[in-house]
Design a protein that fits this description.
8 helices; about 15% strand; extended
Length: about 250
């Protein structure tokens, strides 16, 4: 009855979803999940669906599920991101690394797709996800360049476009990167931002605690309102008559 775990990656218009799921006869069970909209907690306020943010989401999922399984210190993964492809190897004794297989649903498996950045983040985070370099950005004509992958993992492709647009069309730059400007982010500061985000994720991958609202703050739109008493109805009618007569 040992389940086979899947690393499920899904993309919405504004978010990336990464989950660890296993199946039973009655259905699927979500063991752990991470979302790119959580990244502002770790110092990434904008660009939540780009390549670098997808890597951070996969890293967050890996560190979270390994902490849940008490394997975080045993399998720290790749602490210095270099863009090289590496697999987590089992230690001679004790628990083996947590293995999950990538599940991309209906996404196209094109070379350089962002779904593989999530997988790269999960692998570097200490999970055992079977893969090779053929679908990473930087793989071209049978050769893989880890330097190109590393640049994408730190958002340098975005930084390069920011510099080009700022020189050629400052007005368009102000519009397209308005949220970057609002958060005081420049092209030169992106790598530092993602480096700090990686360290923050490793320091505390736990999800944010949910705040339970008191009963008086809850809103039930479909709940029937308490009916008015006879005296309340008469007072309401009298109030309406008085307002009509005053007009």
């Amino acid at each position: 009855n040992t389940p086979k775990y899947r690393l499920i990656v899904r993309l919405t218009n504004k978010d990336f979803v990464a989950q660890i799921v296993y199946s039973r006869i009655i259905g699927d069970f979500v063991m752990c999940s991470a979302y790119s909209h959580e990244l502002p907690r770790y110092g990434v306020p904008v660009g939540l669906t780009n390549y670098a943010a997808c890597y951070c989401t996969g890293l967050l999922l890996a560190r979270r599920v390994l902490s849940q399984l008490h394997l975080a210190t045993r399998y720290p993964g790749v602490t210095e991101v270099n863009g090289r492809v590496s697999q987590v190897e089992a230690l001679p004794s004790g628990a083996r690394p947590f293995r999950a297989f990538l599940d991309i649903g209906l996404h196209r498996t094109t070379t350089g797709a962002r779904i593989f950045a999530v997988m790269k983040g999960a692998s570097d985070g200490g999970m055992d996800v079977p893969h090779n370099e053929k679908r990473f950005v930087g793989f071209k004509k049978g050769k893989f360049n880890p330097k190109v992958l590393r640049e994408h993992l730190f958002g340098q492709h975005v930084a390069q476009y920011m510099r080009i647009l700022q020189d050629e069309d400052p007005e368009k730059y102000q519009i397209q990167f308005s949220r970057f400007i609002k958060n005081n982010l420049t092209a030169d500061g992106l790598e530092q931002m993602y480096t700090q985000a990686h360290a923050a994720i490793r320091a505390n991958p736990a999800p944010k605690e949910k705040r339970t609202r008191p009963e008086e703050e809850k809103h039930y739109p479909n709940r029937c309102k308490k009916p008015l008493s006879n005296s309340q109805r008469k007072a309401r009618i009298a109030q309406k008559i008085a307002s009509m007569q005053s007009e």
